[in-house]
Design a protein that fits this description.
257 residues; mainly alpha; 13 helices; 71% helix; Repressor of the inhibitor of the protein kinase; transferase; IFN-induced_PKR_regulator; kinase activity; kinase
Length: 257
């Protein structure tokens, strides 16, 4: 994906060709801006046929450098593993996309963000449990786009001497193979990553402690936790606050309540 985006963006002439088919600029694949990355992947998936048309056009140019690179990219994109991978990834990103935009709103705090992530994990785990049904719809969509692009749907060549991960045994069905090899590992990695980042014990403790600084949440904690315990928890998590006198801090927390 990054190579295709760069291929068109670094040349005004190539970019002009792409715009003729796409009618809008490419969203850059930004690793640090989460929402922009989602936009880029989803746009790439939905515009795959237009991208192929633009690459085919460039591949017929007399400019041998551009034409050769375009042909190489066409071979990379016209691959059932790539297509199934990007459609599988997009199915997960659709779940995360609107939530990511919502969490950028000014009215959201760390506690609401944690609750939203929990909801995402629940949905992803449900999809993992129902992976046969969920992937069947993805697979059907992939078959449709591959028919348009004239891409052969086939099993990859399996290396009997593969060392890093064993080949799935006794599978001669494309749908089963790609569900086991692409879709399920993708879901497992994303679920594991979300749990590690947001639901680990250390992170949960940090989230709870940070919420003490949010006045509207104090009414929740104050039912069971007094201001002395809150100050202790805050100073334990953030040693740089030890220089602050406990008395005014307790009084301010009491006022927030």
């Amino acid at each position: 994906m990054q190579q295709v985006i760069s291929f068109f963006n670094i040349s005004a002439k190539r970019n002009f060709v792409l715009k003729k088919y796409l009618n809008r600029p490419f969203v850059k694949l930004c690793e640090t801006q989460w929402v922009e990355m989602l936009d880029s992947v989803l746009q790439f998936k939905s515009s795959l046929t237009e991208i192929m048309k633009a690459l085919t056009k460039v591949s017929n140019w007399e400019d041998t450098v551009s034409a050769s690179k375009a042909k190489t990219l066409i071979l990379s994109l016209c691959n059932c593993e790539f297509i199934i991978s990007i459609f599988s990834l997009s199915s997960v990103l659709y779940i995360i996309y609107h939530t990511s935009k919502t969490l950028q709103g000014k009215s959201n705090d760390i506690l609401s963000a944690s609750n939203v992530v929990q909801d995402i994990v629940i949905v992803l785990e449900k999809n993992r449990f129902d992976c046969d049904i969920v992937f069947k719809n993805i697979y059907s969509e992939c078959k449709s786009i591959m028919d348009q692009l004239d891409v052969e749907l086939k099993l990859p060549r399996l290396n009997i001497n593969q060392k890093n991960r064993p080949n799935p045994s006794n599978i001669d069905n494309c749908e089963d193979y790609y569900r086991i090899e692409i879709f399920i590992p993708l879901l497992d990695r994303i679920i594991e990553d979300l749990k590690r980042r947001f639901q680990g014990q250390d992170n949960q403790t940090l989230i709870q402690t940070l919420t003490y600084f949010i006045p509207k949440n104090l009414s929740i904690w104050s039912q069971n936790i007094n201001s002395t315990n809150i100050v202790y928890a805050i100073k334990t998590s953030y040693p740089f606050l030890n220089e602050i006198n406990d008395v005014p801090l307790k009084l301010e927390i009491d006022l927030w309540k």
